[in-house]
Amino acid sequence: MSSAAHEVTRLASRSRVTHPAPGRDLDNAEAAAAEFLRSLGIDPDDPATPDLADTPRRLALAYDELLDVPEFDFTTFANTEAYDELVVVGDIAFQSICEHHLLPFVGVAHVGYLPADRIVGLSKLARTVDHFARRPQTQERLTMQIADLLEEQLRPRGVGVVLRAEHTCMTLRGARSPGTATTTSSMRGHLREHPAARAEFLALTRPIAL
């Protein structure tokens, strides 16, 4: 190995982020979806509503896509420049499924950290959000899982995560309160212990008026 290649190997580190899950059975999911619809008085085999014939299959495929958790490499690099200010990636669009009603919640994530010895490829912050969002979730747990992975992989001086989302389980049913948003946060290390650092991070995650 050349000295240049050896240096790249020394600086870059990859850790595979996975989500072990049982195999999918789309045929069984389709049959269950058809039975679910019939139980609600909707017969997908009714000749009077031919457009419903493929709905059970479409429903199974839609949830298969929504709940397909992507694996990825969390790539970090040595902080050779000794950068010691906040790194924040904001407005990361995400969608997830409420574990209580299996209805979507959709929003944006703001993810940041105070580097120590290592920094991360910026796209990996967005991939981290997507990885944990692609499963039946609560927004509170999702927020903490993102922060946990950053702490585990980077060992930074601080981590901040803010999520804002609209939950269709509240806007389309139940309270039926359209336009409401839920905000959750998780602050770790320096961003939790020092009010000025916390305030700086929160200021960077606020929408910018154009």
Task: Please provide a written account of the structure.
It is a single chain. The protein has 210 residues and is of the alpha+beta class. It has two domains: 26-66, no CATH class; 78-205, GTP Cyclohydrolase I, domain 2, CATH 3.30.1130. The protein contains eight helices and eight strands; from the N terminus they run αβααββββαβαβαβαα. It has helices at residues 3-11, 26-39, 55-66, 123-133, 139-154, 168-171, 190-193, 195-205, and strands at residues 12-17, 72-78, 87-98, 104-114, 118-120, 136-137, 158-167, 182-189. The strands form two sheets. It has a five-stranded mixed β-sheet, with helices on both faces. A three-stranded antiparallel β-sheet has the order 1-2-5. A hairpin with a 5-residue loop joins strand 3 (87-98) and strand 4 (104-114). Helix 2 packs across helix 3 (55-66) and helix 4 (123-133) packs across helix 5 (139-154).
Main attributes of the structure:
alpha+beta; GTP Cyclohydrolase I, domain 2; elongated; GTP cyclohydrolase 1
What level of helicity do the residues show? 25-40%
Question: What's the overall average pLDDT, rounded?
Answer: 93
Q: Stretches where pLDDT falls below 50 for ≥5 residues?
A: none
Q: How many extended strands?
A: 8
| Strand adjacency order, main sheet | 6-3-4-7-8
> What overall form do the CA principal axes indicate?
elongated
Question: Which structural class matches the secondary elements?
Answer: alpha+beta
The CATH homologous superfamily of the largest domain is termed: GTP cyclohydrolase I, C-terminal domain/NADPH-dependent 7-cyano-7-deazaguanine reductase, N-terminal domain
Strand content: 25-35%
Provide the gyration radius in Å. 21 Å
Per CATH, which architecture of the largest domain?
2-Layer Sandwich
Number of helices: 8
Q: For the record, what CATH class of the largest domain applies?
A: Alpha Beta
How many separate domains make up the residues? 2
**Main sheet characteristics:** 5 strands, mixed
GO molecular function, one term: zinc ion binding
EC number: 3.5.4.16
Pathway: Cofactor biosynthesis; 7,8-dihydroneopterin triphosphate biosynthesis; 7,8-dihydroneopterin triphosphate from GTP: step 1/1
Catalytic activity: GTP + H2O = 7,8-dihydroneopterin 3'-triphosphate + formate + H(+)
